[in-house]
Design a protein that fits this description.
0% strand
């Protein structure tokens, strides 16, 4: 879907995020390249954050506190001196949480 305006752009960024997350999950199966997993997951997160930004501009509520939960996971991702395996695990979890939250917000942005 290549609509114009913020809603179309949000949808496109969401789809890009899904592709990056799929790549990260595929890399996770191999488990030999934690840096590549983290990189792909972070690219996914950046795409999903674009949806959050539009939602913030529209002042959409966060009644379940999922955005706060995601923030905690992102902070865990940024923890220095973690093992590559922990960084990969934290990046994948953060990307999944970002995807889930963006998926909840996207219909409200489109409507």
């Amino acid at each position: 879907m290549s609509g114009s305006g913020p809603s179309g752009a949000s949808h496109a960024r969401f789809e890009d995020g899904l592709r990056f997350l799929a790549a990260a999950l595929a890399l996770d199966i191999d488990r030999r390249n934690s840096a590549a997993i983290v990189s792909a997951a972070c690219d996914a997160i950046q795409c999903f954050l674009a949806v959050f930004e539009v939602a913030a501009h529209r002042h959409l509520p966060d009644p379940q506190g999922e955005t706060a939960r995601l923030r905690g996971q992102l902070e865990a991702l940024l923890t220095p001196h973690q093992s590559p395996a922990d960084a990969a695990r934290n990046a994948l979890e953060a990307a999944r949480l970002a995807r889930d939250q963006a998926a909840l917000l996207l219909p409200r942005l489109m409507g």
